[in-house]
Every structure is written in structure tokens, then in C-alpha cells.
Amino acid sequence: MPKKEQFESAGWVTYRPQIKVVDCTVRDGGLMNSHRFTDDFVRRVYQTCVAAGVDYMEFGYRASKKIFPPKDFGPWKFSGEEDIRRIAGENKTGLKICVMADAERTDYREDILPKKDSVVDCIRVACYAHQIPTAIDMVLDADEKGYETTVNLMAVSTVPVFELDKALEVIAQSPAAAVYVVDSYGSLYGEQIADLVGRFAVAMKGKKEIGIHTHNNQQLAFANTIEAIIKGATRLDATMMGLGRGAGNCPMELLLSFLKNPKYLERAVLQCVQDTILPLRKELDWGYSIPYAITGVLNEHPRDAIKLRESDHPDDYVAFYDEMNE
Asked: 305-319 pLDDT, tens per residue?
């Protein structure tokens, strides 16, 4: 009987079984409302990920309560064990649970419990290039506690090549299972994504998976994710209806349809989008808009565009363009 591997050479008409999809809807979407999603919302996303065959779900951050006062945020800024278990119980499903730990913003030694005491499977360590020493210590700590780990290298579009190569050299020696290309500002084009994924892959020498996390400032999040897949990325981040900070992310419903793996059920995601994500449009502003495009083109953090969108003149594009180009 033919094996699945024999069909991989058929290109786009089949699928790569090595690919894993990570849902970041609650974590990245939480940046839009200070992580104040209700349990019902998070539970629906969780149930949808299980039903859709998604491989990982990121519940939120494991942030320091010493740095971020709990009164100012919802539970998914901290994603405590009791909060996650309230949604997922013991998670006796095929879905793996992740939390994100930001370098220098997480009390990881105390707040990340030994794996035997946790329902979490994977700690995703997010860092900037200059935070690599802290990030590696976080990876080592989580690995020793029994977790799968990844390193998500943020704002990679701003990192000089020499510094990037040195950072990757260090990450390659860590026990992290994957390292991510993160287009934090939505500024990268396909050629740049291809170069970065290739550079990451060479540095990892085939010992780690390459991941991709894109933002949609220039309406390229999905296209750039496809480019990363073509170049060998196997950990793919997405959010339902692209929900995420500012311009949002690669839409899960598009990604699953592209992957063609029969284990992924796009219909379940569409039902969740229709019932649960779409109603958020009345209270949250995310997705492509010209201010986000301007910051993306300029390779700038979207904070100024977010501020404009929340102002009394959200569509004053020309004044914003002039201000950003001063």
C-alpha cells in the first residue's frame, strides 16, 4: 500500500504532515482588550481548536504580576493554571496548550510550575535580539521542568544581519524545539521572508523546526506565511479571522484551507468566526487599515497607528503619513 510520504512530491495538491498549526487568537487578540476575554469566549476558541484538529492553542501570556498589576488586566495576561484548567480541565485531547513568556516580563522561575503540575505543554519564549541571554535561561528553565519550548525572535525586521546570525548561533545550541521568524511590524515582503526562513534553517542545521508569525499591516500575513511554508517552515501561527493587535495576523480559516491536510477542519473555524469572533467587531478594532499599512511600510511599531485609530480623527491618513515621515 502506498505511504503518505510518496505523495509529498505532488506539491500544492497534497500536504506536508510535518506542519503544525498554532492558534494565537486569545493571546494575540488579548492585546486588543487587555486580555479581558470571558471564559465563554476562550472556551469556544478552545473547543474549536480541538474540533478543527489544530495542533497547539496559545491561551495567553504568563506575565509577571509584579510588573503588570492584575487589576489592570484580564486573566489571560497571566494564564494561571487555575484559569486554563477552568477552560480545558485536564485537556484529554490531541491539542497541546501553550503560553507565551516574554523575556524580562515573566517571573519564570516561580510562575512556571514543573510540567507534572501543569496542564500546559509548551512554553513559547518571546524575546528581542538583545534579550537572548535571558531567553536562553528561560528555555533552559522550562526544559528542565519538562516542557517543550520555542524561541520567538520578535521584530526580526529591525535586527542587523550580524546580530541576527549571532543570536541564531546561540539559539541553535539551546534545547528549544523551534525558533520563530516574527514579523512584528508587518513590514516584510515575500523575498525577505524567504531569506530569513532560509537563514534560520541553515543556522539550526536541521535540528530545530522553523516557525513563522506574521502581521497583516500590508495585507501580506497569509502570503508571507505561504512563502515561509514553501521555504520549509513547519510551525505556523494564525488567529481566527486574523484577530490580533492592530492589523491582525494570518487568518486561521485561510491557512487551514491552504494546507489541505484532511486532519484540519476549516468548517469548525468558520462556525466559531461567525458565532464568536465576528461579534467582537462591535467593540474591538483590528484588521487592515491605512495607518497600519503606513507603519508597516516604514518598519515601525504600530503603537502610533493604534493611537490614531483610537482618536477622534482615525482616518486622517495624510497627517499621519506626514507625521510618521518627519
From this structure: 999 999 999 999 999
